[in-house]
Design a protein that fits this description.
The complex is a heterodimer of chains A (623) and B (214). Chain A has 623 residues and is of the alpha/beta class. Chain A is 39% helix and 14% strand. Chain A has 16 helices and 17 strands. Chain B is built from 7 helices and 4 strands. In chain B, the strands form 2 sheets. A two-stranded antiparallel sheet of chain B has the order 1-4. Chain B has a two-stranded antiparallel sheet with strand order 2-3. Chain B is elongated, with a radius of gyration of 32 Å. Classes of the chains: A alpha/beta (623), B mainly alpha (214). Chain A: The complex is composed of six subunits: RnfA, RnfB, RnfC, RnfD, RnfE and RnfG. Chain A: Residues 495-544, 563-623 are annotated as: Disordered.
């Protein structure tokens, strides 16, 4: 049992028995896959293939762009039939159908009568046997694997590079690129690796089944990550409603824990939502509280989902990129709920048909859990890296949302909040659009778990209010950043125009002086300048002084901008846009410096000329 | 001299005060020179609130000049791209009264698109763009860097063949955000989140009650 606790939490009915009973099955290979370029957090991947190109299973079809991104791999063997915008599952579906760039691959065997949806119950279990039991299909599923690596014998950079190339992202739901997480050592010291097997949300059993079937592999993946992050121990947090997974873990631990240097600790937690929330689990297992708006890494902890560790190990040990995942198919509208390991990009209706969807009973289709998931408008969207669960709910199971009633200030939400926030205050601020106050009350520490809305006797959709408020704040911040960037570009343009003008003047002056220069060997033309600048000696020296000050200031600005840029690019956390912006600022500073230098040179050249012309008796005004 | 001061309290007090006045005056004078602020900080603050489209719809050549004009007493309501929110923010900053916007507010953010097959490569739009967001060379097709375009309209006028359109900015899924729920008395938008399982909640309530009472 856990030694520590987190505040709040609720006890919704688990409903896990629905899908936890059936063994893990392999979904048959789909005839067509739709692979969105945004299956992860960060920038979208960039397609590397063209329509009509033949790709093999596991081949890279889109590469990562920028710091936080992940590549996409072909999940079946076939021909790229289209690269176009298609509807994809996305939380913002609420605002309208979400489309994103997708690569569509048609399987080679599409016309051979394959893809008949028969339930396979062989071929799971051992990873090596994954593609067995498909007979003829096996030849068609032509793999392109990367060379296997022995992680114990490879260095960190190789392993991280492999994780990056394999497109492994967090499979728990957020989809954060795992390779970025593996580099955490550069910034924070990690002493504990947490294997987040709590799976606290109702209905979902994907991690449960993964642990039952691949416990040894998952533990091996945990060892790999313990090495990468330098963690001194691995803590497994699992809720007590998964006895079979616990048993499997215990067995795997007994089996080979003897020779291991990293100690494993299995902690069984009482079932409570949201104990699987990253920050909550860290608090439960280690007693450390993640700081406000901070990351678990700041308290020396790193969390990983079992599925992610499994995918990471497969990518390293077997050279298999992330092209499939375990997904829970559940809900009362399904005849055969259960978990399947399916190729990414499989259209959801195929998976649902596999599980025996009774279309007439289906009232809502949800991706994710009932607490934090979102409703899908259509089942034509593909399975993506972050789809951990599909709930095909009947109307009785998920009745229409009741009307929102006024807040009676009962305070039940405050007692349920696992992040120790004040949901009621946040509700008022979000409703009134008082974003500054909402931020002051730590709106961004809200994990959107929905515990407050669950206990609310007035049926207020609190999380929706928070999300709306967060969205508005983010949009405003983004506009502000954009404006700042536009300002810098505008300033750069102004500086460039000024420099060009100054240079033009300098050239003009040089031209004017050239014909006079050769004859004036020593004292020929006494002040023959027809320029209307007789009273300007004092003026000019003041001007020169001013320009010199400006030059020094511009030089300082260049140095400052250089330093800023160097610091930011070294930190490596900033995105490309920010770096771009800093570069623009540096360029502006340089332009300014050049402009002042050009002006100064023009003025001084003119002065020297004049001094030469007006004889040696006069002192040069610029000195 | 010292004795005279020691004897005469009034004189001593005057001398002390005089001395202090001279000393502090010198310190303040020096500080005023040494820590002199370049530029007007209020202008910077105003500039930060303006939308930086550099469109010139206010009658000034850019946002910074308008910010300077505002600090010298010009009206706050001349910025259509900023709209009412900018006016409110400026009024808040300067303690002035917010006035309704002078002109038409933009409903959606727009960006410029060049119909590339019609472009003759005259570079006029490139010269007009205040943020260097148009790319191209003489007698070659030009194009707009959408991410940098502020939607200021300034390139539309100089184009001799009218091949520039102002189109709404395409919205990325990441840019969208959830609407606020409609409020008490109405059902929240059902399809927004899976929400709560009402039947389950009922049973949990009963469980909790049983737990509390038993």
């Amino acid at each position: 049992m856990a030694d520590f606790d987190f505040p709040g939490g609720i006890h919704p009915p688990g409903r896990k028995a629905l899908s936890a009973g059936a063994p893990l099955a392999q979904a048959p290979l789909p005839r067509q896959v739709i692979l969105p370029m945004t299956q992860h957090l960060g920038l979208a991947a960039e397609p590397l293939v063209i329509p009509g190109q033949r790709v093999r299973t596991g081949e890279v079809i889109a590469r990562a762009q920028g710091m936080i991104s992940a590549p996409v791999h072909a999940s079946i063997t076939g021909i790229v039939s289209a690269i176009e915008e298609r509807p994809v599952p996305h939380p913002s579906a609420a605002v309208g159908e979400t489309r994103a760039l997708c690569i569509v691959i048609d399987a080679d065997y599409a016309d051979e009568g394959f893809g008949e949806l028969e339930q396979k119950d062989e071929g799971f279990g051992e990873l090596e046997r994954k593609d067995e039991g498909f007979g003829e299909l096996e030849q068609k599923d032509d793999w392109l694997r990367m060379p296997p690596l022995d992680w114990r014998a490879s260095d960190d950079d190789t392993l991280i590079e492999r994780l990056h190339e394999s497109g492994v992202v967090g499979l728990g739901g957020a989809g954060f690129p795992t390779a970025v997480k593996a580099r955490v050592r550069q910034r924070h010291e990690i002493d504990t690796l947490i294997l987040n097997a709590a799976e606290c949300e109702p209905y979902i059993t994907a991690d449960d089944l993964a642990l039952r079937h691949y416990s040894a592999d998952i533990l091996e993946g945990a060892r790999l990550f313990a090495r990468l992050t330098g963690a001194k121990r691995v803590v497994i947090g699992i809720e007590d409603n998964k006895p079979e997974a616990i048993e499997a873990l215990n067995q795997a631990l007994r089996h080979e824990s003897s020779a291991e240097d990293v100690p494993f600790e299995l902690k069984i937690l009482p079932t409570r939502y949201p104990s699987g929330g990253e920050k909550q689990l860290v608090q439960l297992l280690t007693g450390r509280e993640v700081p406000s708006r901070g990351l678990p890494a700041e308290v020396g902890v790193l969390c990983h989902n079992p599925g992610t560790l499994l995918a990471a190990l497969r990518s390293v040990r077997d050279g298999e990129p992330l092209i499939s995942r375990i997904v829970t198919l559940t809900g009362e509208a399904l005849e055969r709920p259960g978990n399947v390991e399916a190729r990414l990009g499989t259209p959801l209706h195929e998976l649902l048909r596999l599980a025996g969807l009774q279309a007439e009973r289906l009232s809502r289709l949800i991706q994710g859990g009932p607490m934090m998931g979102f409703t899908l408008e259509s089942d034509a969207v593909p399975l993506i890296k972050t789809s951990n669960c599909l709930i095909a709910a009947t109307a009785e199971e998920l009745p229409p949302v009741p009307r929102e009633q006024p807040c009676i200030r009962c305070g039940a939400c405050e007692a349920a909040c696992p992040a120790s926030l004040l949901p009621q205050q946040l509700y008022w601020f979000a409703k009134g659009g008082e974003h500054a106050k909402a931020e002051l009350f730590n709106l961004f520490d809200c994990i959107e778990c929905g515990a407050c809305a669950y206990v609310c006797p007035s049926h207020i959709p609190l999380v929706q209010y928070y999300r709306a408020s967060k969205g508005e704040i983010r949009a405003r911040e983004q506009e502000a950043r954009k404006a700042e960037r536009a300002r810098h570009r505008f300033e750069f343009r102004q500086a460039r125009l000024a420099r060009e003008e100054a240079e033009k003047q300098a050239r003009r002056q040089a031209r004017r002086q050239r014909p006079q220069a050769p004859p004036s060997t020593d004292d020929s033309v006494p002040a023959a300048h027809a320029r209307p600048a007789p009273a300007s000696d004092v003026d000019r020296s003041a001007q020169v002084r001013k320009l010199k000050i400006a030059q020094a200031a511009a030089r300082a600005a260049v140095k400052k901008a250089e330093k800023n840029l160097a610091r930011t690019s070294e930190a490596g956390q900033s995105d490309a846009a920010e770096l771009d912006d800093l570069e623009t600022q540096l360029a502006t500073a340089r332009e300014n410096l050049q402009a002042t230098e050009a002006r100064l040179a023009a003025l001084q050249g003119h002065d020297q000329d004049q001094a030469r012309n007006s004889g040696k008796s006069e002192e040069t005004p610029s000195s | 001299m010292l004795e005279l001061l020691a004897d005469n309290d009034i004189l001593a007090a005057i001398a002390a005060l005089l001395g202090m006045a001279v000393a502090f005056g010198a310190v303040l004078g020096f500080a005023g020179q040494y820590f002199k602020v370049e530029g007007d900080p209020v202008v910077e603050q105003i500039d930060a609130l303006l939308p930086q489209t550099q469109c010139g719809q206010c009658g000034y050549p850019g946002c910074k000049p308008y910010a300077e004009a505002i600090s010298q007493g010009d009206e706050l309501n001349k910025c259509p791209p900023g709209g009412e929110t900018t006016i409110a923010a400026l009024a808040d900053l300067l303690g002035r009264e917010a006035k309704p916007l002078d002109g038409e507010a933009q409903d959606v953010p727009r960006v410029a698109y060049i119909r590339e097959e019609e472009c003759i490569g005259c570079t006029k739009c490139i010269q007009a763009c205040p943020v260097d967001a148009i790319l191209g060379a003489a007698k070659h097709m030009h194009t707009v860097i959408i991410d940098e375009c502020t939607g200021c309209d300034l390139c539309v006028e100089p184009c001799p063949v009218d091949c520039i359109d102002m189109l709404p900015r395409s919205d990325e899924p990441e840019d969208r955000h959830w609407p606020r729920p409609p409020g008490p008395g109405r059902r929240p938008l059902q399809h927004i989140d899976a929400g709560l399982i009402a039947s389950d909640r009922q049973s949990v309530r009963e469980d909790d009650r049983a737990f509390l009472h038993g």
